[in-house]
Design goal:
Number of helices: 1
Structural class: mainly beta
Order of helices and strands: EEEEEEEEEEEEEEEEEEEEEEHEEE
Oligomer: single chain
Radius of gyration: 22 Å
């Protein structure tokens, strides 16, 4: 089994980039706006060995909807530390929210399913990271991975946020007791929450491989629009969500790649009601697709090929990892275009075995949820049905999730034809 963990992603929400702005009032802690959570952890991977760390967050401090969080870990060689502030409402505004977060880290045996720059691959061989590529075709070396990003989000004055820029959820035992914000009809003017986002993100990654290094820098922008028409954005049981975005790196500052990527994500949730042992039974479906109009193939006179004007291997039309295709390594596949679908069955237990354990009350744990899931996806060098459905990759898995202090914590195990992975993350993958 390959065990994987992304330390600061414990505090980073799942995709899409935009989120409904909300506050949460638990019946178990009435009138307690501030929620705190501190979790020590340890993890072990084949490349990083044993690492020990701690993560923490506080929400509702200074502003009801704002969250501050961070994490740090260290091992014999690896180390990392990150910090973030989410959803700070800018002064004299009701609808404009600012977030900033980042992380510094050093990792042994970083893996990139990519070719070194200026190296041409024979036309007869699959490009590294392409759908037909070998899972042995990668670069692996010690190196740094440092990133930071800023987000401005505007909560549109329509639907559930017509009168104010955020929604207020009330829960009991982790289940919604206040009025749902959407889910019954589809009309952005009347129901659901819509959010416009401008994100600027940066990454520097180094591979200590000598002359064939694939060191890279990103300074990119994302402009997106979210329409979340679910009943409860934190843990949806009915309704749907749609997100469309365009991302562009203009190759400014020290970024040397100019690329553009367009993507669309849609999710649908169907409630099957309660059962003898479940307070909720939910069918969750997700579809994502993306295309890079800037992506091009360049050929040399010796019959070789290389990709130009493309996003780095860990951006754009990428599959594999803790969000999409969890049975494959992180960023295992990448190309000009991608298509992906996921189906989850989420079973929320009525019984909470730690509800009455006093020394665990600090976890604010409201429920446990068992999830079975299946995924399918493919990357391709063209956005056509023939290219995107020629050799679909699949995986299956099971997940144990819990709601702690208003956040979903998940441990996913996924199996594919290449590997078995364990991912420890925050939030549903969709």
């Amino acid at each position: 089994m390959v065990t994987c963990f992304s330390a600061f992603n414990v505090m980073v929400h799942a995709k899409p980039s935009a989120k409904v702005k909300s506050t949460l009032n638990r019946a178990e802690t009435p009138n307690k706006v501030t929620e705190k959570l501190i979790l020590p952890y340890l993890f072990s991977t084949d490349s990083m060995g044993l690492n020990i760390g701690v993560g923490g967050m506080v929400s509702g401090y200074y502003q009801d909807q704002m969250t501050i969080g961070g994490a740090a870990f260290g091992g014999d060689v690896s180390y990392g530390a990150g910090l973030g502030v989410w959803d700070y409402r800018l002064p004299k505004t009701d609808r404009l929210y600012f977030s900033i977060l980042g992380m510094l880290g050093y990792y042994p045996d970083q893996r990139a399913y990519a070719s070194p720059r200026d190296i041409y691959t024979p036309i007869s061989d699959p490009l590294a990271g392409s759908n037909d590529s070998s899972n042995d075709n990668y670069i692996e070396a010690n190196g740094s991975s440092n990133w930071w990003e800023m987000k401005l989000e505007f909560s549109l004055p329509i639907g559930a946020t017509r009168n104010q820029g955020m929604v207020n959820y009330e829960t009991s035992r982790g289940l919604l007791t206040s009025e749902p914000t959407g889910g019954e009809s589809w009309n952005p003017l009347d129901t659901g929450a819509s959010v416009l986002i401008l994100r600027q993100f940066n990454r520097y990654q180094s591979f200590e491989t000598g002359p064939d290094a694939i060191d890279g820098t990103i300074h990119a922008f994302e402009l997106g629009l979210l329409y979340n028409n679910t009943d409860f954005a934190i843990n949806p049981s009915t309704g749907s969500s749609q997100y469309i975005a365009i991302t562009h790196d203009p190759a400014w500052l020290d970024s040397d790649r100019r690329w553009t990527f367009i993507d669309l994500e849609m999710s649908k949730y169907v409630s099957l009601g309660q059962s003898e042992g479940a307070s909720q039974r939910i069918i969750a479906m997700n579809f994502w697709t993306g295309y890079s109009p800037s992506w091009q193939l360049e050929y040399d006179n010796a019959g070789g090929q290389q990709v130009t004007n493309s996003a780095p291997y860990n951006e754009g039309a990428t599959l594999g990892g803790f969000y999409r295709m969890r049975g494959y390594d992180q960023n295992r596949f990448h190309d000009k275009a991608a298509i992906y679908g996921s189906l989850e069955y989420r079973y929320t237990f009525k019984h909470n075995p730690i509800a009455d354990i006093r020394w665990l009350k600090f976890l604010r744990l409201d429920w446990f949820q068992l999830v079975g899931f299946a995924e399918a996806g493919q990357v391709a060098d063209a956005y056509t049905s023939d290219a995107l459905f020629a050799d679909i990759k699949t995986d299956v898995g099971v997940s144990l999730r819990s709601l702690m202090a208003g956040m979903v914590i998940r441990a996913d195990i996924a199996v594919s034809d290449e590997s078995t992975n364990l991912w420890l993350m925050v939030d549903h993958p969709f």
